[in-house]
Design brief:
Blueprint (H helix, E strand, L loop, with lengths): L1 H12 L8 H12 L22 E3 L3 E5 L11 H5 L5 E3 L5 E3 L5 E5 L2 E2 L1 H4 L2 H7 L5 E7 L13 E7 L2 E2 L3 E11 L4 E11 L2 E25 L4 E25 L4 E26 L4 E28 L2 E14 L2 E9 L2 E25 L3 E24 L4 E4 L6 E19 L2 E18 L7 E19 L2 E14 L1 H4 L4 E4 L2 E3 L8 E13 L3 E23 L2 E26 L2 E16 L4 E18 L3 E10 L3 E2 L2 E2 L3 E12 L4 E8 L5 E10 L2 E10 L2 E11 L3 E2 L12 E2 L18
Parallel strand pairs: 5-8, 24-41, 26-29
Antiparallel strand pairs: 1-2, 2-7, 3-4, 5-6, 7-8, 9-40, 10-11, 10-39, 11-12, 12-13, 12-38, 13-14, 14-15, 15-16, 15-17, 16-18, 17-18, 18-19, 19-20, 19-21, 21-22, 22-23, 23-24, 24-27, 25-26, 27-28, 28-29, 29-30, 30-31, 31-32, 32-35, 33-34, 34-37, 35-36, 36-39, 37-38
Amino acid sequence: MRTRIFLLFCLFTGTTSYAQTQAEKDSIAVAIDSLELLKDDKTLSEVVVTAQKSLVKVDLDKITYDMAEDPEAKTNNVLEMLKKVPMVTVDGDENIQVKGSSDFKIYMNGKPSNLLSNNPKDVLKSMPANTIKSIEVITDPGAKYDAEGVTGILNIVTQSNSSMGGYTVSLSGNVDNLGSLGGGTYFSVKKGKLGLTGNLNASQFKSPKSDYSSFREDLKNHTLLTQKGWSKYNGTYMYGYGELSFEIDTLRLLSVSYNHWGGNATGESQRDVRLEDASQNILNEYSQFSKSKNAYGGPSLRADYQRSFAGVKDRLLTFSYNFNTSPDNSSSDIFTDDKPNNKQWSDGATDEHTLQLDYTTPVNNIHTIEAGVKYIKRINKSDSEFLVWNEVTGDWEPRLSDNDKFRHNSDILGAYAGYNVKLKKWGFKAGLRFEGTWLDAKFERNEAMNFDANYTNLVPSTTITYQLKQGQTFRVGYNLRIQRPGIWYLNPYRNTSDTTNVRFGNPNLDAVKYHNFTLNYSFFNPKFNANVNLSYNFADNTIEQHAWIENNTTYTTYENQGKSQGVGLSTYLNWSPIQKFRIYGNLSGRYTNIKSKQYDLQNDGFSANAYSGVQYTLPKDFTLYGNGYYGSPYIQLQGKGNAYYGYNVALSKAMLKKNLVVRLYANNPFLDKRKSTSSTFGPDFYSENFNSVKAQFFGMSVSYRFGEMKAQIKKVTRGISNDDNMGGGNSGGGGNSSQGGGGQ
């Protein structure tokens, strides 16, 4: 008995060794025997032990933001939460950038989806953040990924929890004073070997009138074109997702998923146009009114079979098939001085079939080997028509073009091999990927324009990490990435909804190779997180916009004309001095230099983005939020984009055991309108556009969650990731649904 008490005494006092002499042991034992324990009927108050889990985790080739641990995710949408993710910024126009660049891809559960790649703004804005488990920023894509995606990949991992023989359901809704509203549901259920996860969201958005003005100086013909007007739009959006998972046995898993997304938007705009000569004499003056419609969306079907192996953890064999279709249809009617002028329509689409086989196996718990093969059949097509009003006959007359019916088919074969090793504080990852592309372009109205092209590429990648000490990691990497133009860049359809600014794509575009070098340092402890990333990339023959003036009209298309290089610095900071208070920020800056020998053009400059915020937990389950953001104009070959800025505040209240959360928010409560300026220049012209949009609005969101959560639905670890296709416009991840090389 004495020995047991003495051992407890040693543990309590921190003594590290047994007493040195028998006399010491006896004296301590006597002292303990003489102790008298007094009875006290007082009850201690409840002691709650809490610990704040780190929101950010750093791995060999990625950074993970734990969305499930952020209380603001309970009532916010994914687009808003994305602003907090390291090395990610979302500007005032809701364009997404990674490390200050728009050259990246977005996945869901490790798989590409037309749901995200074609319209990320609306999808992520309507997706409840409480359905998301984490967001991964894959900063150094390895050989297993397709060779496209210059600065990285955003992988959105959805919640997979469900109850054993039960379910969990989340309901959400939001409304604001501008007339926008939305609602959705997320559910997950498991019974035995079957698991089902689903998500359904619908929203209606309205944009109030925004003011617009511009001027363009034609330095060659000495004319000045000025425009002034307004625009507005509204529309609906919905998407649904369902995944059925079946555990055949402990080693084999089959999953099938289906999603369908889509929406439509209608817009109206009016502008007064004036053309003057150098003496301010009016050469032309008219008022133009336009109505436009855009319908987009389509289904996606996917099937995965995964085989694991007894006795060898993390050894996986996966076979996958994926089908995507992404139609994108638009039309517009133009009126000049209240009379019909022209109308046009375009039906564009991309259909894609993919087969993939992947294998990965660990060796001695230190090494990992991975390999795979992949085949993609991609079919791009566009049908369009342009009609002009004939005042004499009182009818519409078609103006046929060789570009009215266009087809662009690609066959892509890829194979990769990779090797990873972890040795104490060191980590090493290397891989090599082969890609072969065979494409065929056809113009049904003029077969003489048909062409084909074949090319192959070897794509290396490597990453080295070193753990300086616990929570501190240093990483250096290199990879070669490829950009292939998508239908928004290739589509030759001419968008003339603004007759003074005509846009169209270029079916003759080639792929672009980017060389990327990165240095990264991360520091994480329970109170302070920091990540600093320095990158440099360069490329020849880059795809750049080309704008010129012809017959008092500005034409814009895309060409392989650029030689670019850039240096970027991104930082992420998160400080929690006390558990209830948190300060965070995403800061990034970039220097870009772009040249075009073909047109003797050059532009360079610095751009910066900043997003910061505070979060404070109040008594009675209230939480207060405040955020602010700023972005300088981004650099293009022939100009600069719009700057953005703003702020928002929010207050949330959790009720019913924190299952019901109500959130009130105000965006720019003391800023009625936000103004921005963009510019475009060429050898013989200069133009500026001025926009003023409604910045102030107020809203409310509600979310309610019920059901049990005791087990997880098992999901396929690996699958298809088609990140080889370049999206449209500058919206980050290809978020542009307009026709003709990215639309307007």
